[in-house]
Design goal:
homodimer; 9-stranded antiparallel beta sheet; 14 helices
C-alpha cells in the first residue's frame, strides 16, 4: 500500500481518532504482524507531543499456545506486570489507539472453558481500563489494520488480498492523499446532526421488524441520548472512538427488551466465529438462543457474566451506508457493524443517558443501564428492515423503511 | 529458511540454551521483525513446560522516535510498568532467551547525550535483572536471529542476504535437521575441557602481542577460574549462556592491566558503530583512547560508570575457530567475539573467581573483580597474536602462536 496514504491514515488516527494531546501518554495496541504500520502511528504520536508511547503487540499464535499449554488454574491469574501496565495507563490518563485485525480461526483449537477462564480473568484485570474507556475518561479510538490473515478471510484466494483490504479500510475511513482530517471531521459532524434529529423525537421505544424473523421491541433507558460521531473526554478533549463509524446509537433499558432478533452477519468472538444465530428476549434477558455455527462461543458470551445476557447498545445505520455499499463482509465488527443496524450484549455506555458519565453505578442502574465486563456488538440489519419508533407521548413514527432511515 | 531447521534451532535455544524447566517463567526477547521465529521459541518453551512466557518485542525504530522526541528529563525515567516487568521476571526465577539482531545504523541520528541518559536509566532499572543473569541465578542464553536489516549489513546488495545469514547462524550453532542438541552438547564439553586445561596451568598473567600495536599485560584476578561452554544456575540447572560460543574466558584483575590494545573488528554499541580503535591502560584503567569511527560512542562507553573504563573479561579464542573460518564480519559481538580473542569493558562475571557467585560485593572487589552496570565485549584477536602466560610460580608458558592456541 502507498506509504503516503498509510501515513495519512496514521495521522488521522492520532489527530482525530485519539486526538493525542501534548504531554500525554499514548497506548498503541495492535497485531504484531502490523508492526510496520504501528511504527507510523507511534512516530505520529510522538510528533503530536506524546510524553511516552506504550506499544502493546498482540500475537494470537502466542496466545493460542499459551492457552493450549497452560492449565486452567494458571489461566485464572493475569501476571502482575500486566496489571502494572493497566495501572500505569489509567493513572497516567493515557489515550488509547487500538488497531484491530481479526483472525477468526486462530483460537479454534482452544477449549471453550479455557477461553472463558482467560477472558474472564483478563476482563477482571482490565476492569479499570475498560471503565476508563467506557466512560470516556480519556480519549480512545478503535480502527482497522490490514494483515495477511484477515485479508485472506475477506478476499480468499486473491494474491492482492492485503492491498484490497487496505484500500477498503482507507476508503471507509475517508483517507486520501490530502484532506483526510478535514473529510473525517465533516463526516463526524454529519453523524452528530443525525443523532440530534433522533433525540428531538423524544423516543420511548423502537420496534424492529423484517422478513427473516426479527420482531423486537427495544425500550430505551430513562433519559436516553442518541450519540454518534465524536465524543469528548472528561477533560473535554474531542475524539473519534471508532474509525470508521456510521452509527447513531442509544441505550436500551436493561429490563425492557422483548421479542426475537435474527443475526444477519457473522460475529467474531474470543477468536472464533458465531454465525446464523438468533436470540429471544424476555424482560431484557436472553431466554433462548440458537446458532448454526459457534453455539459454544455464543453460550460463553451469554454466560460471561450477569450483564452479558442483556443489551447495552442499540445502533441505527442505513442499509445503504458507504461501508455497506462496498459490499464486503469484513468479519470485523468495527466495519460490519457500520454496515448494519446492530445491538450489543453487555455493558452500556453511560454517555447514552443524560450526564451519565457523572452518575454512580446505582444511579445508572436505576436509569436502566446494563453493567457488565464485556460489550459485544452483533449485526441484524437487513435491506427490508422496518423500524417504528414510539415517542414518550405515545406517537408512532416511522424511522426505517426498507432498511434505510426515512426521517 | 527451511522451517524444520528453524524449529530445530528454536528447540536448541529452549532445551540447551536456557534449558527451560517445567513450571518455570520464561522471558523471550527479540526484535519485532523476527516475530515469526519468536513464535517458534515461545511454542517450544510451552512444550518444555513453561508456566508462562513473557514476550518482549524490541523495535529500534520506535526506540529511535522515542529518544528523538522525548526530552532528557523524560528519558531519565523508565516507566513503572517496565520496572514491574523486571521485578516479575526476577521474583519468579525466570530464565531468559535473548535474540540479537544488530542494526548499527538505527540510532545514528540520536544525540549521544540522550543515548547515554536513556541507557543509564535503563541499566539502573535493570540492575537486579542484570545481576540475576551476571551471577547466573537463573538460566539465560543469548543467540542470533536473522533480520533483513542485519542481513543487509553483513551481505550488502545481496537478494539472498537473509537466507545466507540464517545459514551462517545455524552453521555456527551446529544446527542440522537432526542431532542439533547432541552436536551442541558435545561441543560444549570440548570447550569445558579446554578451560580445565588452562586452569591447570595456574596462570597469574597473560601478555598479548601482535604487529598492529597490541602489547598488553593482563594480570588475572585472585583465584581466577577460566570458564567456557555450559554453566550452572543457582539451582544447578545446566545452561548455555551463548549460542554459538567458542570462547574460554577469565577475570582480569581490575587494577592490574597495563599497555595498549588495538581493536581488530568493529563494535556495535548503543545502536552505533565504533571501529578502528585503541585503548591504553594503566593500573587497570583506560587512560587514553582513539577511534577512527564512533569516538563519541566510545567516550559514552568509557564514561558510562566508574567500572566501564576497566576490564571485566579476557577471552581466548583460536584465530582458526569455526566461526572465524566462515570469514564473515557479523557486526554482532555474539558472533564476532567467537572469532577472535576479546576483552570486555565493565562488569566481570563473579563465576570467574572461585565460588564467586556466593561472595559479597566487597569480597569480589578484594579479589580484583570489576563492578559495573555495563559489560561490552570488543575484539582484538589477529592471525599473528602471541600470548605468553606467566604462572603463579613464575614460569613463562606460550599459550598462543600465530593467533592460535599452542597448548
Amino acid at each position: 500500500m502507498n506509504l503516503d496514504l498509510l501515513k495519512e491514515y496514521a495521522s488521522l488516527l492520532v489527530r482525530c481518532g485519539a486526538n493525542v494531546q501534548a504531554g500525554q501518554v499514548v497506548v498503541v495496541k495492535g497485531p504484531v504482524e502490523a508492526y510496520e504500520f504501528i511504527r507510523l502511528v507511534v512516530k505520529e504520536a510522538y510528533v503530536a507531543g506524546a510524553k511516552h508511547v506504550v506499544v502493546e503487540y498482540e500475537d494470537l499464535t502466542n496466545l493460542k499456545n499459551s492457552l493450549f499449554y497452560k492449565d486452567i488454574k494458571t489461566l485464572e491469574n493475569i501476571p502482575s506486570y500486566e496489571l502494572a501496565k493497566f495501572d500505569y495507563e489509567v493513572s497516567n490518563n493515557a489515550c488509547f489507539i487500538s488497531l484491530t485485525a481479526p483472525n477468526p480461526d486462530a483460537l479454534r483449537v482452544i477449549e471453550p472453558i479455557k477461553l472463558q477462564t482467560y477472558n474472564r480473568a483478563l476482563s477482571k484485570a482490565k476492569k479499570e481500563v475498560n471503565e476508563y474507556t467506557m466512560k470516556s475518561v480519556g480519549q480512545w479510538t478503535v480502527a482497522g489494520v490490514a494483515t495477511l490473515k484477515w485479508a485472506e478471510k475477506v478476499f480468499p484466494n486473491d494474491s492482492e488480498a492485503v492491498d484490497k483490504l487496505w484500500k477498503a479500510i482507507l476508503e471507509a475511513s475517508r483517507v486520501s492523499v490530502t484532506g483526510s482530517i478535514k473529510n473525517w471531521q465533516a463526516h463526524s459532524e454529519e453523524i452528530e446532526k443525525h443523532a440530534k434529529l433522533l433525540n428531538s423525537l423524544n423516543l420511548k421505544k423502537l420496534h424492529f421488524k423484517n422478513d427473516i424473523g426479527t420482531d423486537l421491541v427495544v425500550e430505551l433507558a430513562d433519559k436516553n441520548i442518541f450519540a454518534g460521531g465524536d465524543e469528548y473526554s472528561k477533560s473535554k478533549v474531542r475524539f473519534s472512538p471508532n474509525i470508521p463509524t456510521e452509527e447513531v446509537f442509544g441505550m436500551p433499558h436493561k429490563l425492557r427488551v422483548n421479542g426475537k432478533v435474527v443475526s444477519t452477519k457473522p460475529l467474531i468472538y474470543q477468536g472464533g466465529l458465531i454465525d446464523d444465530f438468533s436470540l429471544i428476549f424476555k424482560d431484557g434477558k436472553v431466554i433462548e438462543y440458537s446458532a448454526k455455527k459457534g453455539i459454544e462461543l455464543l453460550k460463553n458470551l451469554l454466560e460471561f457474566d450477569e450483564g452479558s445476557s442483556y443489551l447495552g447498545e442499540v445502533a441505527l445505520i442505513s442499509h445503504n451506508s458507504p461501508i455497506s455499499n462496498q459490499n464486503i463482509l469484513f468479519y470485523n465488527t468495527l466495519f460490519d457493524e457500520n454496515a448494519s443496524c446492530h445491538l450489543a450484549l453487555g455493558a452500556a455506555y453511560p454517555m447514552n443517558t443524560l450526564n451519565g458519565n457523572e452518575l454512580s453505578e446505582e444511579e445508572l442502574i436505576s436509569r436502566g443501564c446494563n453493567i457488565s465486563n464485556t460489550h459485544v456488538d452483533f449485526m441484524f440489519g437487513s435491506s427490508d428492515m422496518e423500524v417504528i419508533g414510539t415517542s414518550l407521548d405515545g406517537k408512532d413514527i416511522k424511522i426505517f423503511e426498507n432498511g434505510n432511515f426515512v426521517i
